[in-house]
């Protein structure tokens, strides 16, 4: 038997569930379909299980897209403060961790339950374990063939996400649907992802696995001042994840290891503690193991600081502030938090998220070529784009 709906939302993640509830508010008969066993899996594992659900400072400048203006409309019409108000209405306790990042006090499940409650409240049904076999438009309606039967709908919203974290069920489904309907899809790659190092660098830094240090990491496109973490395969931590979205294969990254310290630490130490060994001075500002490796990598002699000239010490400081590293690559979609690229925003209305070519077909969330920084920005895009489509689907 054919099931008649006003709106079918494909994908029961953050954007899809939020969109479904918003469309339901307008009295639309909505059903969300997802191939997974349970909804919101990416939400549940995000933020260490506490879901960094938005950022107090979210603005268009925090997003990457071939068209940087596209996200402005949705972000301005459904803001972080709107979602924070919804979280407060559900009495979900939350806190700011750092840099405007808001996390649940208890569990990411609180956000999933909020979304399901909103869907239930406004009559939007949610169906899991439902594989989409095909989607076509016949006359003025969409026909969705699924493992659970055939659906007919006036509108279809694609909220299937990107390619990151395939173990959570990520697929290229959304991109294939876009291409099927003649829409342009920009090349995709992993974003907010750890770097891997070339063998020679990996060998040098392998013993530092687990050590974190505050740095400024950047290139000619952007720079971020946050923690960097040495791993057994390369470099991770917030600063590395952030700059990875602005990095192209073959490029170097500039890392200022003195970003959290006074940049004249060695010259000053020559005055204040001239008899201290170079390793001792460095160990005041870096973990001991890292201080030792920095001396070895730069082939510095571990002498009392007074035995170096001021110019020698300044050169050492410049080396620490201007460390260049050329990654071998990234860890890829396996550990990436987001997917860069996707459905070309030129194909969509920034106000409604509907495609310009196909009446009633919408794309929202990560499947679109809009990618946020680390820190709750991608969830805010899910809420804002989901809201925009929900007002129109």
Description:
This protein is α+β, with helices and mostly antiparallel strands and 393 residues long. It has two domains: 3-190 and 337-390, FAD/NAD(P)-binding domain, CATH 3.50.50.60; 195-330, Beta Barrel (Elongation Factor Tu (Ef-tu), domain 3), CATH 2.40.30.10. It contains 13 helices and 21 strands. It has helices at 14-25, 41-45, 72-77, 80-89, 109-121, 173-180, 199-205, 238-244, 265-272, 278-283, 288-297, 310-321, 377-390, and strands spanning 3-10, 30-33, 52-55, 63-64, 94-96, 101-104, 125-127, 132-138, 141-146, 149-158, 185-191, 195-196, 212-218, 223-230, 234-236, 253-256, 323-325, 329-330, 338-343, 361-363, 371-372. The strands form five sheets. Strands 1, 2, 7, 8, 9, 10 and 20 form a seven-stranded mixed beta sheet that branches. It is elongated. The two termini are 24 Å apart.
Low-confidence stretches: none
How many DSSP E strands?
21
Architecture per CATH nomenclature, i.e. the level-2 architecture of the largest domain: 3-Layer(bba) Sandwich
Bin the helical content.
25-40%
Supply the CATH superfamily name of the largest domain. Answer: FAD/NAD(P)-binding domain
Radius of gyration: 24 Å
| CATH class assignment of the largest domain | Alpha Beta
Based on Cα principal axes, name the global outline. elongated
Q: How many discrete structural domains?
A: 2
